[in-house]
Amino acid sequence: MTAFRMSLRPTRRSRPRVPGAIVAILVAAGLGLGLIGCSAPPSEPAASPSPTLPPGVAPLRGTPVDPAGSEHPSLAVKIDNHPAARPQLGLESADLVFEELVEGGLTRYAAIWHSDVPAEVGPVRSIRPMDPEILSSFGGIVAYSGGQPQFVDAMKATPLLNIIFDEDATGLFVRAEDRDSPHDVVLAAAETVQLHSDLAEPRAQLDYADSGEDTTAVLAGEPTATIVTRFSESGGRAWDWDPATAAYLRSQDGAADLDTTGTQLRATNVLVLRVEVDRSGEVPRTILTGSGEAWVSAGGSTMPATWFKDGPAAPIRLADAAGATIELAPGNTWIELVPADGGSVELVP
């Protein structure tokens, strides 16, 4: 049962936020802590079923964009997060990054580029059973190294164009000489998108405020200095709010998480979704349909929310306690899919 939970506060659509500091909250779905295990989300969230952004706004980032420059598909790529794969190529320019649990308590990324597609991304790794559910709503292209036949077949059954290292004869993939296998597969990302520029651009997935100051979390949340998440007993990651850059700076396993230039990875928005994980097979499968608890962080503040997703082709929706749509800050977003069993979330004021 719930030992301590953050109160759900109204958004700017209702009454002004109530002052008060957040205490450190440990939301654990396993690890013997038994917190929030019996709480239930609002029964009938009423957030808009599909966001509509005006012309000139990047569909996956909510920032201004030249409409002519965005007429190309998004590119989703499975990216390695093994310690030997760091620093990764191109994560700093991704619009959206999903972090998901895989075997051995490790995590892997499903990153999506559209606003700013770099020349190269990687290391590219194999598909997992939850990826069709995570990526189908984006359309466009998905690239990965390979995978178990049943997982590859499921990904090929989606509307996305599959670009697969194990089947590639185009030369879009290369093995980097300065990296050890299997953490060495690199994709020519910009070239891949250019070759398939006839595919449609992605539809908007999330709702964005006009500015960072107008986000729902800033207006209805509580100040939060650090967000700590654990997907298993092995390792953790943290996001520290940096007012100077108006972004959350990422760390893993107690060290700054860097890109290839030595700059710390950062996010404008951090979403933590509490998800069920099917562990009946040898590969854990995150279940990203239905609904569950969430925490939305933007502008140095965090608010509780409900996430819901009607099916693989539907976007993720975020609602407050009254069922109203939550608006994010314009910018990039990382989405942490933290297991309800064996994972935890800590919000530090």
Overall shape: it is: globular
Helix content: under 10%
CATH architecture of the largest domain, by name, is 3-Layer(bba) Sandwich
The total strand number stands at: 22
Number of domains: 2
The largest sheet is:
12 strands, mixed
Q: In CATH, what is the class of the largest domain?
A: Alpha Beta
Protein name: DUF3048 domain-containing protein
Region (Disordered): 41-74
InterPro entries: DUF3048_C, DUF3048_N, YerB-like_sf
Domain DUF3048: 65-188, 229-335
Task: Give me the secondary-structure topology.
Elements: E1 25-28, E2 75-79, E3 96-101, E4 107-113, E5 120-121, H1 131-135, E6 141-144, H2 149-156, E7 161-164, E8 173-175, E9 185-188, H3 189-195, H4 216-220, E10 222-223, E11 226-230, E12 237-242, E13 247-252, E14 255-256, E15 266-267, E16 269-278, E17 285-287, E18 290-298, E19 301-309, E20 317-319, E21 333-339, E22 344-348
Parallel strand pairs: 2-6, 3-21, 6-7, 16-21
Antiparallel strand pairs: 1-22, 2-4, 3-4, 5-9, 8-9, 10-19, 11-12, 11-22, 12-13, 13-14, 13-15, 16-17, 16-18, 18-19, 19-20
Structural write-up:
The chain folds into 2 domains: 25-51 and 206-348, YerB-like fold (3-Layer(bba) Sandwich), CATH 3.50.90; 68-195, YerB-like fold (3-Layer(bba) Sandwich). 7% of the residues lie in helices and 31% in strands. A hairpin with a 7-residue loop joins strand 19 and strand 20. The chain is built from 4 helices and 22 strands. The model is unreliable at 1-43 (pLDDT under 50). It is globular. The longest helix has 8 residues, at 149-156. With 349 residues, it is mainly beta. Residues 41-74 are annotated as: Disordered.
